[in-house]
Amino acid sequence: MAGNRTFTMIKPDAFEAGNSGAILKMIEEAGFKIVAMKATRLTPELAGKFYEVHKERPFYADLCKYMSSGPIIAAILEKDNAVEDFRTLIGATNPANAAEGTIRKIFAKSIEANAVHGSDSDENAAIEGNFYFSQLERVL
Ligand code: ATP
Ligand code: MG
């Protein structure tokens, strides 16, 4: 059975552009509840750890630099079928391929600066939520 939690980041491009509020509004209107949330900033080392699965990819170094280039918002979200429904809401990795009305179609600047992150599995949603939030911050 699909889990009911996912993890998201509003990435540096969207935060810097002042789109955090509009993106959170879309997330809430799509039926997701915010379980935990904070504004923070990754160091290049922490960005590297978060995206470690991509360390052999050609874009990894740039991705770590970009993800540590400014503040982000990290959040744990709750909804039935959370992982899949959230990935539908955000759209394809490359905004050029993202469906109309998706968060990335509306707000992403490029395949790298693509506005938001969404977990790709229930297992990674838990790992990523635990990466950012302590047990006491995950009580809701
Ligand atoms: P995310 O994990 O951030 O939700 P995703 O699951 O859609 O995105 P991944 O394949 O996991 O895509 O890639 C992680 C991130 O790496 C992308 O969101 C994007 O910021 C960056 N990225 C992916 N592919 C490329 C690429 N070809 N060139 C530059 N950056 C890329
Ligand atoms: Mg991914």
From TrEMBL:
Its cofactor is Mg(2+). InterPro entries: NDK-like_dom (IPR034907), NDK-like_dom_sf (IPR036850), Nucleoside_diP_kinase (IPR001564). GO terms for molecular function: ATP binding; nucleoside diphosphate kinase activity. ATP binds at K11, F59, R87, T93, R104, N114. GO terms for biological process: CTP biosynthetic process; GTP biosynthetic process; UTP biosynthetic process. Residues 3-140 form the Nucleoside diphosphate kinase-like domain. Keywords: ATP-binding, Kinase, Nucleotide-binding, Phosphoprotein, Transferase. SMART domains: NDK. The active site is at H117 (pros-phosphohistidine intermediate). It comes from the Bacteria. Transmembrane segments: none annotated. It holds the Pfam family NDK. PANTHER family: NUCLEOSIDE DIPHOSPHATE KINASE, NUCLEOSIDE DIPHOSPHATE KINASE DDB_G0292928-RELATED. Belongs to the NDK family. This is Nucleoside diphosphate kinase. It comes from Algoriphagus boseongensis.
